[in-house]
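Sequence in, structure out.
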Amino acid sequence: MGGGGGQPAFMGRDMGQQRTSWGTKIMATVDMEVERLVNNSYLRAKKILQDNRPLLDRVAKELVEREAVSAEEFQMLLVEYKIKSCEYDILGEERNRDKLPFQTLPAGV
């Protein structure tokens, strides 16, 4: 029971290796698009949290005191803090690597 090439079979041998019939050019395009979406989603979520910090602090305080906030209470807080929904649009065309934290890995990684 060999694993091809005279090597012994090992069930996890191919783990972490991409197996696809797609070409490397397509995979590179997919990788760039995924990076763009993840980076820009992170930046948008961070901005939403920063812009709404007073509400976030209030909800955190309520949760510490009572452990729960009903949907109705949350809706009233949204009105009280004048929160508006975000526009649905494209998450940016750039990958925005330079705007992300952790530009270098810690020494132990």
